[in-house]
Amino acid sequence: MTLIEHEKGTVVKEVPKHQLTAQEAVESIKHISKNIRDYSLRMRETMKTLRESGAIPELAEAIREASFAVRDTAKDINEAARDLKKSGVVSDTASAAEETLKSAQDTLQTVKETANDAGKASPHTTEAVRGGIDKAKKETGQVAEKVMEAAKRQVRA
User: Fold this and answer.
1) Is the CB of residue 148 less than 8 Å from the CB of residue 97?
2) Is-contact 64 72, C-beta < 8 A?
3) 2 forms bridges with which residues in the sheet?
4) Which of 52, 77, 93, 138 has a CA positioned 20 to 30 A from the CA of residue 110?
């Protein structure tokens, strides 16, 4: 099957594929030639309209300004990153977060040991101490997560 297309690209009809007669070949070439002339005229008219409207220089100027803005922004980001690196803020923040996490883990271990000792010495208060441990554990974990998230944001900044 061969598709015959309208000038706007829509299929007009399907015809069985066969050898073209001389007359069909001539008609097909004429149709193709007409389409070429029509599209050439449209392109000329479009370019003329674009030139007359000033849209091309305006677009070029907008692209130029945007490229300058991107360049300047990249330079600013690079400078800020170098300043952060030089000042040690990121590594200091990460170290502080690491120390805070270690301290929180040590505190949790001490609280656990205290709870075990208290449970042996006074079995009736064990439940109260366990509740305190659970609360301390939860809050320590939340604080540690917040500190680590803050450090990660600092590193990304």
Assistant:
1) yes
2) no
3) 15
4) 93
What is the rounded (10 degree) CA torsion for 45, 46, 47, 51? 100
**Alpha-carbon span 126 to 115, nearest angstrom:** 7
Amino acid occupying residue 26: V
Look at residues 64, 138, 66 and name the one whose alpha carbon lies nearest to residue 104: 138
Show Cβ contacts of residue 7 under 8 Å, excluding neighbours closer than 6 positions.
35, 38
Q: Could you report the per-residue pLDDT of 116-149, keeping only the tens digit for each?
A: 877 777 766 667 767 777 777 787 777 777 777 7
What is the value of pTM for the model shown?
Answer: 0.39
d(CA 24, CA 7) in angstroms, rounded, equals 18
CB distance 97 to 111 below 8 Å:
no
Nearest to 151 by CA among 93, 101, 85: 93
Integer Cα distance of 133 and 31 in angstroms: 87
115 CB burial (10 A radius; 0-12, 13-18, 19+): buried
